[in-house]
Specification:
globular, mainly alpha, single chain
Amino acid sequence: MGSVQIVTTILAAAITAVAVWLAVRAVMKMTAVIRLGQPAPERFADKGARTTKMLVETAGHTRMLKWSVVGAAHWFVMVGFVVLSLLVLEAYFEVVTPGGGLPIVGHWTVFGLVTEWIGILGLIGIVVLMAIRLRNRPTRPGGLSRFTGSTMWQGYFVEWVVLLVLIFGFVIRGFKVATDHFEYPVWATPLSHAVGAVLPDWSAGVSVAALIKIAISMTWLIVISLNVTMGVAWHRFLAFPNIFFKRDPEKAAGSGLGPLRPMTSEGKPLDFEEADPEKDQFGVAQVEQFTWKGLLDFSTCTECGRCQSQCPAWNTGKPLSPKLLVLSLRDHAYAKAPYLLAGGGKDLTGEEKATEAQLAHMDVLALAEADRPLIGTAEEGGVIDPDVLWSCTTCGACVEQCPVDIEHVDHIVDMRRYQVLIESSFPSEAGVMLRNLENKGNPWGAPQNTREDWTKGLDFEVPRVGEVEDFEYLFWVGCAGAFEDRAKKTTRAVATLLNEAGVSFAILGEGETCSGDPARRIGNEFVFQMLAQQNVETLNEAFDGREKSKRKIVATCPHCFNTLGNEYGQLGGEFEVVHHTQLLAHLVSAGKLTPVQPVDGGVTYHDPCYLGRHNRIFAAPREVLGDSMQGELTEMPRNSERSFCCGAGGARMWMEEKIGKRINVDRVEEAMSTGAKTIAVGCPFCSTMLNDGVNGKGAGEDVEVVDVASVLLRSVKPEAPAGEKETAPAAG
């Protein structure tokens, strides 16, 4: 060992020791913060399925590849980070001697070949990612950037570290070539030999380059260890457990889509008949009241901004960015952590847990952070502004796009639950809707005895449950389908088509009440459970004696469809629920309904969030429209899982949109840009919002918004009255 090697060895050991010590300390701190969260015992079930899903998502990059170029580049960088970590380890042998290498595998030509090409592709990948970050930098002129609000220096730092580590990997190999210490052939390692051809025969070059590579790597570890909220770096490690502990490992897409998590206290579902606000947690009022998985979510955020780029609120000038919401909660949690870890915190009555002696020795900055309300305006020092909380439509675009499976919607609704149930703080106009749900059983406050008025004038009898001995489907009409003028046309069209196809069905009539979706999404879990339990009891009675496969429900509203099919199981209601477009597609393919006349003018289809993104039903409505229009379906740029929300979800249907551009107008402009004369929908909320948007643009005479069922009815029975233009003013 020469003098250069002695120096490089000592320096490599010193910087590594410091980096490892800091890293261990950082991991312990992060673990302690995450453990502050509430229990979530269900996250430990199905370990086999969780492991499989985690490996598929990480190794296969299934979610990253939704953006193909970025996903492919990131895959090569990720593989490079994992595999080429062996070359960082090899550098510790190379600082000792120029001919050093990994024992056993370091002499295999196949090892040289694989690491060479992973290094080359990693270099290409990181350059692509750096170019994309620069092209989308927040300071660029024009357009919204998905990186707005991200800590840009951290992204640049991580990318430059990756680039330099890869470069010095080839520099080390180049010096080995130049000094005749390289054992791999040219065909296996062409770039290494090309670099070696231009480097001098400097015997100490290998050790010096290896030291630089180690210094760069350990500097990266030191920096991230001193910045535990540096998600752009820590996600390399945290993504694996965050995906493993996702809500539903069986789901192909975001596991936070579809049903909401039930309201829990101490890890157990809350029973409102026995719950006590002084003993049981009602929603989330403090950051430590999120589950530990929520705190892991916040720690894992990569700040990539995919969620932000797809969010309808952010894209129309609202203050909500799912990314910035998560980052605010993350920063607040870690800033408050010293106070919490020292024994501080408020109990459910608001009393301080720590003694005066403990508080006297606590970090003053942590104490100041602890005094901030979780929800509050800037003047109040709030972590999350109320306008941010109430701008969410729960469309799920953020959850769909997140590459590390953060469950934004669950966290937003948890915060809403506390605001509604304990603080009674929510947009005032939504109060009318909630009172109507409690008193009338529907958000419009319509008389219950008018639920069957939509059946008047039909040329066939609509049977009621209890009046017929048997039926194949229970037709869940929904509140909009029973009371809202446009939606009633859809209800009539579906009933007519089912009758035409010879499908036996029955309705509950006045026995039906609201599914509870708007109450649950706004955060009023009490009203939701009141309505849901009533409906579950009614439905169980209607299906008495039937096995689940024969407890079939067809619903025209995706919100009812999602609630009945995905959430009633939490309350003992197990049913097979289909959306009307699914059933109609089946009837057409089976030859029970035959479109005979195409509808003129072309059609574009708007995917409802709770049908498409939340429940993955994309094909059925398009099949119905394809058969009805004979192939004249024109897709909007944002469609299927990237469909843009109409603005009505999350109980926003009953709240005024006072900030920024109206979401429905943005969507209507996109629909009109296709040139189609018909905008087809599969949801009564979407119908209302898009109709309002069309009328607001003054295009009511040229463009029509109509349900998929009505399009099919016009084609099956061209003379059907349901074919009239649906231009009635919006209700609600």
